[in-house]
Amino acid sequence: MVIDTEENAVMEWYEKTYNTKPLFAKNKPVLTPETSLSTGKYPWARETGDEIMNDYFQRFNVDSSHFNFLTYWPYEKGILPDFLRPKSQKIPEVDPKPLTLQMLIESAKVRRWLYD
Fold it and tell me: In 3D, which of 111, 81, 99 has the Cα closest to residue 6?
């Protein structure tokens, strides 16, 4: 099986830069192209997701103009219950979509974001 250059580069970058051992875990997560950054067992917080994606777009020269961050890290309700908020500030309950390493690999191949 031949692994292409983009797949190698994206997987290696993520492994070295962001794949750390989660708190209370015995080992680092095993990475596969199906590993999701926004959902699953070890999703990243919004702030870290933003940092990862900005680094990715710059490092791999991927056009981010069609990337919608809120698809993968939607607003969270926070501490204040929705019923205490004015109608204009109510936050809808939206589940994040998975953002996988495979999506990063495929977009890196064509140098533009392919999803959303």
Answer: 111
Tell me the H-state helices in 18-72. Answer: 46-59, 69-72
Strand partners, 47: none
Minimal CA–CA distance to 64: which of 74, 76, 72, 56? 56
Domain assignment present for residue 23? The answer is no
Give the residue carrying structure tokens 């962001």: 18
For residue 96, being part of any structural domain is answered with yes
**What single-letter amino acid sits at 97?**
K
User: Within the chain, where are the H helices?
Assistant: 5-17, 46-59, 69-72, 101-110
At 33-60, the pLDDT tens digits run: 999 999 998 899 999 999 999 999 999 9
